[in-house]
UniProtKB/TrEMBL annotation:
Key words of the record: DNA synthesis, Transferase
Residue ranges of every copy of the UmuC domain listed in the record: 48-259
Biased composition range(s): Polar residues: 490-503
GO biological process, one term: DNA repair
Record's protein name: UmuC domain-containing protein
An annotated Gene Ontology molecular function: DNA-directed DNA polymerase activity
Length: 724
DNA sequence: CAGGGTTCTT
DNA sequence: AAGAACC
């Protein structure tokens, strides 16, 4: 009975009903009906996957140092164990336990410092990127969780394999009393469970990571059900069991989306369990929370959640912070700020975008009311400084930023009086993609015909449909991409044609589908910019490790999925992420108990050294000569040479370039021009761009904003990570 | 709340 | 700029 909503099952005949149900709850209602026709098979309901890695930080450390697999391992940040492996859990160690308690319970506990998130961040993005290579609709939640909307993928499989498949479920089915499980009643979820299993396998084989997955009809449910069978397993939630899983939640706090404050307010109303909330009159709830929040809370309690999976783009801000017992002198503050800035600026440089805003946040100690409250001040970053971040040495940049930071500091703290800080955070936000600058020169562009906007768009095409079911306004920018985007093929591989974004799926199945040459664009050109862009960024970064050496990640995303897949196939990539040993090589074995092993560049000396080394490798920042061919010359950068990331992918790569662009011509252009073009491609049409502004846009379309706004501006390169 | 992020809302 | 949420 339930709650209608998206949980209804399909059946072609019923989708309409379920669609209506789900829409009724949301603001999208108005546009509802029209959506149906926009794309043939509008999914009646979605199939959402939620992936949650097992003790993420601990897994990363165990990959870096396999010896840690057999010992009880705890990841320590300051005085707490933020997570630990299962060996440690068996011995009573839990997450967020203090180091002393943990050691008490498990004296042999091995500790690895986890304050430096670099490795975790890198692995995190690799995972998101990997998922994106199979399905564009991936939304990150923290470093170790990802939602994936596989509705379209499921529909395709359903269409392809009439009834063969869907006869079974992979993994568990959330069903207290699993009387009769009839996969045939839930073919989409059954297929979703197969996809989840395949993706988990890919995650394991390519990254060496294990984790759980939840398969359901919306994000809320997928996330909740993912946690039912813990270590490295997956669970599917059928619509008929929605009330079971929701009813099981003793406290409203267990509902994702209901935090401490909200739980308290609910408690004040006498609502503690999810059931209480389910039964509480909406009107009364409205009095306390207002219509939107009240409605949302009610829906969550019922397991109803129509929020779309919003492809996460490049991060909107980069920050670095440190907490400590006490800092009470301006000098110490300055020193700490400098330290934080050094690493932040480095990260910013790798990102490639330019921050427009700088923010300083502090937390002051105070017995009463203590912790918790943070105060911050922000200010625009003068252009000349912002530009240095990517061009000049980071040391210089830091020097320029410190005064700004101190100014902000003094706006919050009266240093003539005593003060006691316990945390300092520095943050860059309002990140803008660079490269658009010179776009003006039309002449250059004229070498290529259409292209400009095509790019990533296609990658996302599949999503569109989803969106239509998800939120009403999704259509917004469809018209922009009228161009189909056929890619003429670059170098080697097959000439594929375009479109079907769906291709990656083939990979899951183990076969490549190279389609016959020209496929008409069946998936409409429409789609979104938005998403496309958005995702592209983070993706590039990570994907770097998987790409063949001569492929520029930026360009990579401009390609159709088919080609992307190709490039990612073993034949093209170099040995790497593999599960095994390779990755651990870098790690210094005995990092046990030590704090931070290879984290090189925190120290300026190291930075300097790296820089010098880099200089030798690459005479100038911008190579003047293009290297249109082969990676022969390519050399895997040393582990520490992060700065090289960008250079490792010569801008010239002759193989990937947007559609109608002649690769040869492209490769012969000066690097600067190449970059310029690439950035333009990424930005989509300048006109609608919208992009740049980003901020303003959001208020308009809350949820959907995502797609649009982010994407558009997303920007360029970020090679967050080493090319491993 | 720990920690170090990050995003979105108010 | 602060609050709330999530990991």
């Amino acid at each position: 009975m339930a709650n209608s909503e998206d949980e209804m099952e399909e059946d072609e005949t019923e989708w309409k009903n379920s669609f209506v149900d789900s829409v009724s709850l949301s603001s999208a209602a108005a546009s509802g009906p029209s959506l149906n026709k926009t794309s043939g098979p509008t999914p009646a309901h979605r199939v959402i996957l939620h992936f949650d890695l097992d003790c993420f930080y601990a897994q990363v450390e165990m990959i870096r140092n396999p010896a840690l697999r057999e010992v009880p391992l705890g990841i320590q940040q300051k005085y707490i164990i933020v997570t630990c492996n299962y060996v440690a859990r068996d011995q009573g160690v839990t997450k967020l336990m203090s180091v002393t308690d943990a050691k008490e319970r498990c004296p042999q506990l091995v500790l690895v410092k986890g304050e430096d998130l670099t490795h975790y961040r890198e692995m995190s993005y690799k995972l998101t990127e990997l998922l994106m290579s199979y399905c564009p609709l991936v939304e990150r939640l923290g470093f170790d969780e990802n939602f994936v909307d596989v509705t379209n993928m499921v529909e395709r499989r359903l269409a392809q394999t009439p009834e063969s498949n869907s006869l079974s479920f992979k993994g568990h089915i959330y069903n207290h009393f699993s009387a009769d499980v009839k996969p045939s009643d839930h073919p989409r979820l059954a297929l979703g469970s197969h996809i989840a299993a395949e993706l988990r396998e890919v995650i394991h084989s390519k990254l060496g990571l294990t984790g759980c997955a939840g398969i359901a009809t919306n994000k809320l449910l997928a996330k909740l059900v993912a946690g039912t069978f813990k270590p490295n397993q997956q669970t599917t939630l059928l619509p008929e069991n929605v009330s079971d899983i929701m009813g099981c939640l003793s406290s409203v706090r267990k509902v994702p989306g209901v935090g401490h404050q909200t739980a308290k307010r609910l408690q004040a109303l006498g609502l503690v369990s999810v059931k209480d909330l389910q039964l509480f009159p909406l009107n009364d709830l409205v009095k306390e929370f207002g219509v939107p929040s009240a409605q949302r809370l009610k829906n969550l309690a019922l397991g109803v959640d129509d929020s779309p999976v919003v492809p996460t783009g490049a991060p909107q801000s980069l920050s670095d912070e440190d907490s400590f017992k006490k800092i009470s002198s301006t000098t110490d503050v300055l020193e700490k700020i400098q330290e934080l800035l050094r690493s932040l600026v480095e990260r910013m440089r790798k990102d490639g975008r330019q921050p427009q805003t700088f923010r300083l946040t502090i937390r002051r100690y105070s017995a009463t009311n203590k912790w918790f409250s943070r105060e911050s001040r922000q200010c625009p970053i003068p252009n000349h400084i912002g530009q240095k971040i990517s061009s000049d040495s980071s040391d210089d940049t830091v020097v320029q930023l410190v005064p700004l930071a101190m100014e902000l500091f003094h706006k919050m703290v009266d240093s003539s009086a005593a003060f006691h800080l316990t945390l300092i955070n520095v943050c860059f936000s309002n990140l803008q993609s660079k490269g658009a600058a010179v776009s003006g020169k039309g002449s250059i562009k004229s070498f290529f015909t259409h292209s400009t906007s095509a790019r990533k768009t296609q990658i996302f095409s599949s999503q569109r449909q989803d969106d239509s079911s998800q939120s009403g306004d999704s259509n917004c920018m469809d018209h922009q991409f009228s161009t189909p985007c056929l890619i003429t093929e670059p170098t080697s591989q097959k000439t594929v044609t375009t479109k079907s974004p769906r291709s990656s799926e083939a990979a899951l199945h183990g076969f490549k589908r190279k389609q016959s040459p020209v496929v008409a664009v069946e998936d409409p050109p429409l789609q979104r910019i938005s998403c496309s862009t958005a995702r592209s960024d983070p993706g590039e970064t990570n994907i770097a490790h998987q790409l063949p050496p001569n492929v520029d990640p930026e360009v990579f995303w401009l390609l159709p999925e088919e080609i992307q897949k190709e490039l990612l196939s073993p034949a093209y990539t170099h040995p790497l992420p593999g599960t095994s040993s390779s990755s651990s090589a870098v790690v210094d074995a005995p990092c046990i108990t030590k704090s931070k092993p290879p984290q090189s560049f925190t120290d300026s000396q190291t930075i300097k050294d790296i820089k010098e080394a880099a200089e030798k490798l690459v005479p100038s920042n911008r190579p003047t000569t293009v290297n249109p061919h082969r990676p022969d010359t390519y050399v895997l950068p040393g582990e520490n040479v992060m700065e090289e990331g960008r250079r490792s992918f010569p801008q010239s790569s002759d193989c990937e370039i947007p559609g109608n662009v002649d690769p040869k011509v492209f490769s012969e252009l000066p690097p600067d021009v190449q970059r310029e073009l690439m950035s333009e491609w990424k930005q989509q049409k300048p006109v609608l761009k919208t992009a740049s502004s980003r901020k303003p846009g959001r208020s308009l379309m809350t949820k959907d904003r995502k797609a649009a706004g982010k994407g558009s501006q997303a920007n360029n390169l970020f090679k967050y990570f080493k090319p491993s």
